[in-house]
């Protein structure tokens, strides 16, 4: 990290402190920091510890939404959550929901409650790698769905819902990193929208696979061709997200619209079951299209 030196007055030179660091340690104008000179190095240390956010809930009172509440607290950036319940066996529910979180474990437990806490700290450096894993898992699911359709191997489709849980886990962790202020605040809203979109796409692939598996339905060659084309669009979106290219995003937008028109025409001639499958494919495509705007905003300086 480099900082430019600014002159203040006749003899004072100043450098700015990184905003992420100041937010993490809750520093503001007038606060003091320790400055230690070590040869060529100048060490600046906060006198405060990072804020530890705590919450307490009772899942018996929350009824059907208890799982969503714990997930919301995790994504919001809370570091420690005390969970009370009415029956000792309810702790199994907590172990179940922890499968959706990276870096959280139960650290204490009684008959009527437990405490879960962050044991792996969310860091800015995790964001790009976890986002990349999310894309990779999505495309792996997309490819396996396509291969299952082409080879009429319906059993593969039955494994997709479990793999979608991994996408949810990665997406939760990314949103936690964003909400803890560990990404550029100018990018945070658009990145959050993209992560939400990737999780939604995973859910649609899951629903597509589950429907096809349970209904024992296989589409015709045209629908499979459209499905593979949409998978290619998803893969290209990942490439552009990682390394933005204006010409490529323009081409991607055109391909999305062309494919949407073809899908709309196919609806007119397909059976109810095939139309249901087309609807899932259309939802995936529309969700990717909705992510183009945030991607453009993130790269506005390159347009």
Key words describing this protein structure:
single chain, 303 residues, alpha+beta, Pemi-like Protein 1, Chain: D, Translation Initiation Factor IF3, Methane Monooxygenase Hydroxylase, Chain G, domain 1, 4-stranded mixed sheet, two-stranded antiparallel sheet, 11 helices, 59% helix, 14% strand, flat
Write up what this structure looks like.
The protein has 3 domains: 6-46, Ribbon (Pemi-like Protein 1, Chain: D); 54-118, Translation Initiation Factor IF3 (2-Layer Sandwich); 124-302, Phosphate transport system protein phou homolog 2, domain 2 (Methane Monooxygenase Hydroxylase, Chain G, domain 1, Up-down Bundle), CATH 1.20.58.220. The protein contains 11 helices and 8 strands. Helix 10 runs antiparallel to helix 11. A 4-stranded mixed β-sheet has the order 5-6-8-7. The chain has a two-stranded antiparallel sheet with strand order 1-2. The longest helix is centred in the middle third of the chain and has 28 residues, at 188-215. It is of the alpha+beta class. The two termini are 26 Å apart.
